Amino acid sequence: MANASSFTHLDETGKPQMVDVGEKNATVRTAEAESRIYLPPAVLQQFDGTELTTKKGAVFQTAVIAGIMAAKKTPDLIPLCHTLVLENCKVHIAVEGSEAVIRCTVKTTGKTGVEMEALTGASVAALTVYDMCKALSHDMEIVHTRLISKTGGKHDIG
């Protein structure tokens, strides 16, 4: 098992700490994350080719706004995340087969990455789709959330 000091969010005594990024150089950083939510037939029947509409309103439009708001609030939701000024956040939702595919792309210029903001944005957008459609069916399932890519740090992926 790794010792406590090998984890960046633990100090030498094993207590939680925020990572010190003070000595790092600011770079342009991006991240893209994806969440997928299974939509059963009762929900898909409400999809008109561009939007899913329920009695609560335009589902995808609302989920896009929720995803952007969530990305901006990530340090309030996830302990030890740095507060970042987001230069851009985009949430895109498309239906592929029986799934809504939600992509959240975030950009900042800073000393730490925006992976958690992208993952939070995609996740909350998926939760919003669920919330707005649950009156139609509880058979929806958030089946997949993952980081697609990140750039600007030590370890670019994607």
Instruction: Give me the side-by-side strand order of the main sheet.
Output: 4-5-1-6
Which structural class should the secondary elements be placed in? alpha+beta
Shape: elongated
Relevant CATH superfamily: Molybdopterin cofactor biosynthesis C (MoaC) domain
Structure write-up:
One of its GO terms (biological process) is Mo-molybdopterin cofactor biosynthetic process. Its EC number is 4.6.1.17. Catalyzes the conversion of (8S)-3',8-cyclo-7,8-dihydroguanosine 5'-triphosphate to cyclic pyranopterin monophosphate (cPMP). It catalyses: (8S)-3',8-cyclo-7,8-dihydroguanosine 5'-triphosphate = cyclic pyranopterin phosphate + diphosphate. This is cyclic pyranopterin monophosphate synthase. With 158 residues, the protein is of the alpha+beta class. It has a single domain (26-151), classed as Molybdopterin cofactor biosynthesis C (MoaC) domain (Alpha-Beta Plaits, 2-Layer Sandwich). The protein is built from four helices and six strands, in the order E-H-E-E-H-H-E-E-H-E. The protein has helices spanning 41-44, 59-72, 74-77, 115-133; strands at residues 27-38, 53-54, 57-58, 88-96, 99-110, 141-151. It has a four-stranded antiparallel β-sheet. Strands 2-3 form a two-stranded antiparallel ribbon. A hairpin with a 2-residue loop joins strand 2 (53-54) and strand 3. Helix 2 (59-72) packs antiparallel against helix 4. The longest helix is centred in the last third of the chain and has 19 residues, at 115-133. The model has no long low-confidence stretch (mean pLDDT 91).
